[in-house]
Amino acid sequence: MDALSLLPDDLTRVGSRSRLVIVSAQRARQFMQGIPSSIVTKHTKPTTIALEQVLKGHVKFLVGKDARQAMKEAKKQRERELERLAVARVAGEDASEIKKDLSVMVDDSKPVEPGEED
């Protein structure tokens, strides 16, 4: 019940309870992935800390067209990173094949028979 005491009557800063829940949940997920909290608090649960941060204005978030644009840019960035990793992996495989080919020397010359010296 302690987290409910954090809820203000006026949600104009956040916009709506739904947005408050979504932003707080995303912030709590960041805590669980290891990102440290930006404020000192008496709370210990990630969800309560995230809710407190959002209500105090410590978490910046985008809405509307700005949010859609940011999501598109993030998607493009992820695609570029995946492409870069795929190219690096293929290049690494090609390099190892070339190295393997160069490490094996094949002598295609005719073997020298005894008594047949140049």
In summary, what is this structure?
It is built from three helices and no strands.
Walkthrough of the structure:
The longest helix has about 40 residues, at about 65-105. This protein folds into 2 domains: about 1-60, no CATH class; about 60-105. It has helices spanning about 15-30, 45-55, 65-105. The N and C termini lie far apart (about 95 Å). The chain is mostly helical. Helix content is about 55%, strand content about 0%. The mean pLDDT is about 80.
N-to-C SSE series?
HHH
Distance between the termini: 97 Å
Anisotropy-based shape: elongated
Q: Helix- and strand-based class?
A: mainly alpha
Rounded to an integer in angstroms, the radius of gyration calculated over CA atoms is: 30 Å
- Uncertain parts: none
Count of individual helical segments: 3
The main pleated sheet reads as: none
| Percentage of residues assigned to helices | 55-70%
Write the layout of secondary structure elements.
Blueprint: H1 17-32, H2 46-56, H3 64-103
Helix pairs in contact: 1-2
Q: Which features characterize this protein?
A:
57% helix; 118 residues; elongated; 2 domains; mainly alpha; 3 helices
